[in-house]
């Protein structure tokens, strides 16, 4: 080969190396640019031609008033125009995360915006509209074949969504959150049946759902949370690997099927305490966290031989309890839970007709001593002078040998002036509640305080004398 040919090959080789190096540099700068917050990425694109191309392929678009118009002087109508310009200048290629939150007058643009942003390869879609725009219907055609294969996280708020049977499977969807979404129970069941990889399902304020049915294909579902669905009557789950179930603000019939793996349960309904103590140890033997709420509780908790062997955190909330209810019967839960570490008992807003220890001639009840070696933290919110509540507290102080912290809150959990609340005043309380709070504090000093071992940190929370100066000072 001639010298001139060798020289030509050498020059070509150097050009190729320079080209490869330039491509590598572009990829590095593109990656750095993709890590910048949206506002900083936009500024960089304006200042540098090198970042202009990567801006048009930016993978994370979070569009809300905080990011686009934190200045209060920016009219909210202008935000839609800003977003429209951003998306029209975006190629639609490479978007991994698209979040559109609380943008006024977005319905006029949404079809175009979603067509640009929701493309094959997207992994997260969050769509939160304003309260006046719930009529927008998220189109099913948005979930094309490529989107169905890539999307992992879907959150819809304040809109309508009516999935059809023709919708293909969403093979990689792991998290679904629906808040104030107009969707029927049948439509949701259809959508769930096409999401076999789903791990988390959160549904709140979806008032058109009357029956929530979880199909058996959801073998990966671990967490189910349902709250404030006004018309919901039935929850039926066939997801046998469910670990956490949270139900709030709804009185519904619940059927969870196989629940042997359940570790976290949170429920609230009338007279739940007894059934929870009687049924859960056998149906959910592996529970570690249990939160139960009950109102108008009438039946005392029975002592039973069954155990919560793995229960570590217990929360019991009793609202507007029947005057005859025996708080001391809750010892049954402590007796059944050898691994229990923390216990929160909320007895706020009791009826004022309970049997107070003041004026009673009977002594504190005694039962056979049973040492409990795991309970470390006990808190009673809404502590008052009910005789059975004082007996329960004294029993715990005497028998929980590992107890480290005991908090007795007589304020019913209301905000106090030292919490930084606006106005610097405690929340107002009815006079009878203030009186009962004072009686509760007096009961602590008279019957409990001297029984607490020195190694236990006792915290007594009382109402504020400065804000409630006109409350009685003598309680007995």
UniProtKB/TrEMBL annotation:
UniProt xrefs under InterPro entries: At1g61320/At1g61330-like, F-box-like_dom_sf, LRR_At1g61320_AtMIF1, LRR_dom_sf
Gene3D superfamilies associated with the record: Ribonuclease Inhibitor
Domain of life: Eukaryota
Domain At1g61320/AtMIF1 LRR: 86-464
Name of protein: At1g61320/AtMIF1 LRR domain-containing protein
The species this protein was found in: Urochloa decumbens
């Amino acid at each position: 080969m001639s010298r001139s040919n060798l020289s030509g090959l050498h020059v070509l080789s150097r050009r190729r190396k320079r080209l490869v190096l330039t491509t590598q540099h572009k990829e590095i700068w593109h990656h750095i640019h993709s890590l910048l917050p949206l506002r900083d990425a936009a500024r960089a694109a304006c200042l540098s031609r090198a970042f202009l191309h990567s801006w048009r392929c930016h993978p994370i678009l979070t569009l809300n008033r905080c990011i686009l118009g934190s200045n209060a002087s920016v009219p909210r109508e202008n935000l839609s125009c800003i977003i429209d310009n951003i998306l029209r200048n975006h190629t639609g290629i490479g978007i991994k995360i698209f979040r559109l939150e609380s943008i006024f007058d977005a319905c006029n643009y949404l079809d175009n915006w979603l067509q640009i942003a929701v493309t094959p390869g997207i992994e997260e879609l969050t769509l939160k509209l304003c309260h006046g725009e719930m009529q927008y219907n998220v189109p099913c055609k948005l979930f094309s074949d490529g989107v169905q294969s890539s999307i992992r996280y879907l959150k819809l708020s304040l809109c309508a969504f009516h999935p059809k049977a023709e919708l293909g499977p969403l093979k990689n969807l792991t998290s679904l959150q629906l808040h104030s979404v107009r969707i029927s129970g049948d439509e949701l069941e259809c959508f769930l049946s096409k999401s076999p990889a789903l791990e988390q399902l959160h549904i709140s304020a979806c008032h058109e759902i009357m029956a929530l049915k979880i199909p058996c294909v959801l073998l990966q579902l671990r967490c189910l949370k349902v709250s404030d669905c006004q018309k919901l009557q039935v929850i039926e789950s066939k997801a046998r690997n469910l670990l956490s179930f949270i139900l709030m603000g709804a009185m519904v019939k619940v059927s969870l099927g196989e629940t042997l793996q359940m570790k976290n349960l949170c429920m609230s309904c009338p007279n739940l305490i007894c059934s929870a103590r009687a049924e859960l140890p056998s149906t959910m033997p592996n529970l570690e966290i249990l939160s139960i709420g009950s109102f108008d509780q009438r039946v005392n908790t029975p002592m039973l031989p069954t155990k919560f062997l793995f229960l570590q955190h217990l929360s019991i909330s009793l609202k507007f309890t029947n005057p005859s209810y025996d708080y001391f019967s809750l010892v049954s839960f402590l007796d059944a839970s050898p691994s229990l570490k923390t216990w929160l008992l909320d007895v706020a807003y009791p009826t004022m007709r309970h049997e107070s220890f003041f004026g009673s001639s009977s002594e504190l009840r005694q039962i056979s001593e049973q040492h409990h070696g795991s309970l470390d933290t006990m808190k009673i919110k809404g502590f008052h002078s009910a005789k059975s509540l004082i007996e329960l507290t004294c029993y715990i102080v005497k028998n929980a040998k590992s107890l480290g912290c005991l908090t007795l809150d007589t304020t019913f959990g209301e905000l106090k002036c030292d919490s930084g609340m606006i106005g610097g005043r405690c929340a107002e309380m009815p006079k009878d509640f203030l009186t009962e709070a004072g009686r509760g504090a007096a009961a602590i000093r008279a019957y409990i305080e001297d029984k607490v071992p020195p190694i236990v940190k006792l915290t007594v929370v009382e109402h504020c004398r400065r804000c409630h100066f006109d409350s009685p000072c003598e309680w007995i």
